[in-house]
Each structure stands twice: as structure tokens, then as C-alpha cells.
Amino acid sequence: MTLSATHPLVDGRTSSSPLISAYRGERPSRRPVWFMRQAGRSLPEYRLLRQGTGMLDSCLDPAMASEITLQPVRRHDVDAAIFFSDIVIPLKLAGVDVDIVPGVGPVLGTPVRTAADVAALPELTDEALEPIRQAVALTVAELGSTPLIGFAGAPFTLAAYMVEGKPSRDHLGPRTMMHSDPETWGALTRWAADASGKFLKAQLQAGASAAQLFDSWAGSLGLADYTAHVASASGRALDFVRDLGAPLIHFGTGTSELLVAMHDVGVDVVGVDYRLPLDEANRRLGGAVPLQGNIDPALLSAPWEVLEAHVLAVLKAGSAAPGHVVNLGHGVPPDTDPAVLTRIVELIHSVEP
Fold this sequence. Notes:
17 helices; 9 strands; TIM Barrel; two-stranded antiparallel sheet; alpha/beta; globular
């Protein structure tokens, strides 16, 4: 499986960009930065465009998804676009009854809790992913030398939503299933892995230059459970895109104790949340892995001198790693002043790589 000759990584548009260079552990021309959730609620142009359109509908409208993806690149001069979508889109495209409920999050019509429930899950077909490929192609045509990052939810996080039927604080349902019914848990996470892997593959083959696996809820797991019940499924999802040659990033929240195991599923870059300094993350990973992160989103509303000092400290800590892509240690809060993000980008770009 290879990328086409007109793919941005192959034809040279993005292969030497600051982002891809840093992901590959090379010295970039400037310090690359992008923000998780940079497209979305913090931008007035996003809110205007989304009026009257549901979240999942906006993700599945190729023109709208593309425009939303491009908005923060135009506004902030970030070094990458992150594809605007949602981790439950593969479920929706497969035919699972799921929606994003405002103020709640992903909600399934029927939770998936038994072996029969898992066996009844529909398969995600290649044809169903056509809106994703169209949106990526539209976006890449506008981005030029700026890379697009594709993404998918990791199998544990997807399975957690599917078992609970909605967001959960402690993820007791999936954590109970993995021990009390490991066969059903294994079947569910394999289904989720295949859905996420196909979603990633569609984005990369259509023009994305890198891909990130988000394990939003893996921090609820101890290392032993992650290794025994989750890691193999994450590896299975990545198997769909491993041989394409695009950098692969793995990120989770609350995963400081899992960083080595998350790297070992087979990725090039590890994202670090705001809880762990990057120099310590680098030490834990043996000084051999490019890192992404980890400005604390809570400081985005702090006085500039406080935020500036924090950003510079992150840059200093990240410089210990073979490569460093600056990001937040989680997503952009919806009440963030967009001008602050633009100012952070300007600060980062002013510092020698």
C-alpha cells in the first residue's frame, strides 16, 4: 500500500515542512505549532458557519468540513491543519445510531454491552468513507505546503463511549467488561480498531500528511490493563496505515504513566498532556522519540506575561527531545480568545528552532 504520486508527502509539498521535519526528528526551519481543537468553538467564523447545522452533519458535509479545517490556518498561521471531524464519525458512517448532543457529547441510541451487541455491529465500508476523502481532498488543495493531520479515536476511547452509551467520568463500564467478559471486550475493541484504522487510511490516502490517534480516556487505565487489554487494539488500528510512510502520533490525556506503552504500539511521535514536563517525558522515552505538546490550556486566559513565561518553559523542556512540535496539553477551550492563540504562534515562531 503506497501513497499516490500526487500526494503532498510524495510530490514534495509538505515533506520538508517544519511539522513533518520535527515529527521525523529533523531540525525544522522554524518551531512548528498547531493546537488540538484549533478549529471550532473558539472561532467566531466557525460559529457563524455552523449555525443551524448539527455537529455530525457538519463533519459529513465535505465543503463545510474543509472550510472549518482551514479557518485556524488562515487566522493563526499554525504549521498544520487538523482535519475537522469527530471520533464517532466512523460509527456514524458504519450505521451505528450515534449523535453529538450539545452539552453532553457522543450519545448512542443503544449501548453495546453483550457479545450479541458486538456481533450485530455493522461493518464500515470503504464506500461510506467517500465524504471523508472528498473533504480531505478539498482541504489539501487549499493548504499548499501546509500539512494536514488526519486523526481517529483510539479503540479504547471509542469502545468506552459504546459501552457507556454516553460520556463517563470513570469509565467503569468498559473497565468492568475488559475483566468480566474479555472475549466480548476483545471483539468490541477489534471492531473499533478496524473502524478507526479505515478512517485514518481514508484521510491519509486522500492527502493528509500525518495522522494522530487520540486515546482521550486511556488515562483511566493503569499500565497493566492498558498493556493487556488495549495496546494490541491500538496497534491493530495503526496497522491500516503503518506502511504509508506518514508520521504517526499517539496522544492521550492523563497518560503520563503509559507513554512508553503508547509509543510501543508503533508510532513515531508521542503527544504529552499538560501534567508532565516534556523533559521528563523525554527521559521516560529514552531520549529517542519526537514529542508533541504541552502548553497548559488553563493558562490561555492568564495574563500575557504568565502565559509567555509558560510557553517559553515548554519550548525549553521540549528542546531536549529529538523533535518537538508545540501544542496544547489538551484541546482549545471554547471560551479562548483567538487573538491569544495567534500571539502564541508568533512567539513560538520568533524563537530559534
